[in-house]
Amino acid sequence: MARSSRNVPKKAGLPGLRIHLGGVAMANDPGRKQLIDGLNQDLAAEYQAVIAYLLFSRLANGPLRPELSGFFESEIADELGHAKLLAQKIVALGGTPTTKPAEVTLSEDNREMLQISLQAEKDTIERYTQRIKQAEAAGELGLKVDLEQLVSDETRHKEDIERMLFGWRE
To answer: In CATH, which superfamily holds the domain spanning 25-165?
Structure first.
């Protein structure tokens, strides 16, 4: 059976959306490609976070080692969950998830580990905020909501790290 499609009138409030009659609504291809590319950047950053937190949990040292090691280790599951969600969404959009993490920066200094982690969380929030706009523009409203939840998670991580660094004395 041949599939036909038609453009949705602009007054429908969904510019660029194509409806495949008898099928699924699909976002326009350029917006979808850009969104998939961005989600793959986000996925690479989540892989990076998993690796960094794993290694920081082992590199933490000194009298705060037990607390820092536990903190870093507890973050791994959250970041891995984010990676799973992103990979699922990339596939659902017709893309292929990246297998390469973004570059991992390590340190053996406890404070620097936290500062590296804080900057990574800030960068992630900024990326996800951009991705939310792209998802909305592409008509991917479910993805937009999922990304908003990730921003909430990453904001909590950022705030936890900021509190750990507050008043830190060397």
So the answer is: Ferritin, core subunit, four-helix bundle (1.20.1260.10)
